Amino acid sequence: MFHLADNRSSQAKSDKLHKTSNFQNIMQDKWKKYYRFSPNLNLDEAMIPFTGRLSFLQYIRGKPIPWGIKAYILASSSTGYIYRMHIYSGKNKDIINTQQLVEYMVEDLSGSSYMLYIDNYYTSPKLLQSLREKSIRCTGTLRKNRLLNKPLCAKISTMSKGEIKFYTNEPEKNLTLAIWKDKREVLFLSNHRQAEKTQVLVGVNQQVKEIPTMRIHYNDKARGVDNANKNCNVYRYNHAEKKWWKKIFEQIVQITLSNIYIIYKHLNSKPKSKFDCHMEIITYLIHNDQIEKPLKLKHYLDWVPLKKKYLSEVKIEDSGQQSNKKDFRLTCKNKNCSKKSDLHCVGCTQLSSFICVLCVPIYFIEYHENKF
Fold it and tell me: What is the pLDDT of residues 294-314, one digit of tens each?
């Protein structure tokens, strides 16, 4: 049986995530240890796909995966490298509001002058002032109902299209609010950006348009979690699971594989494809080889590609009509097994090294030792 934690422990009664919390903490320490923090970071939520019965199952409208387990992720804006993940498991005594959540996620960054980009779900004047005291620069979009100045909220609705206004807080003057009226009002709040405008060319006619500089920085740097989700979904293990903790385990493994490939590309001028990198990791784990050794993937098992299946199972006659289908599978190479299989060795030149699934653990190594 596969388990990540002991269900009889005292932690099982108090922690809903006790099945995966220890494993997640170990992996998060590894994520932060082997890749230094990027100067530009993005905090956003992501969904782990799951549709079973669960007390903290979430639905977020507009997400590519609307139903699932919600996770808050801190990632690099440029590479999508994930440093930290927090699973939402319902109301928490330690994390009551979004300000405490953001402070919890960036607690390792205080005093280091990092730049954080967040959306309007998290941004508030109190949060940005708190982050400024910790030497963390932050920029984000802001909801109008979080402004404490009611007369200012009334002025926003009277702005004309294309108009830009800047405000600051009194008497500290450590926050800058940019209000830009496009199709609707867009509010940006920053604790380090200045009140600046930029001219850009828009549309087919290349018309000159004036926009806040905060908007350019935000659109460029606030996609780190989107890039991280994209990296994790490449060659994803999409096996249906009834256990919620297995889906979290799969997500942690997927994040680890994505982070490994980002480090690998950073260290190599001519990196291999992500598929080849995954195959090397899998082969190392199967054969218990040391990671330091160079790997030569000559012989490994794989299913027969669809093209070869169709070419062998459908025979085209001269008249152009198709004859009866032919069974492309061959008998297992194990002499004591008479089953047919479509699992073959990629490294062998002949497409006749078929081995059934049940005989793989023992007979695959024995077959190649006798052959070579």
Answer: 444 456 666 665 444 444 444
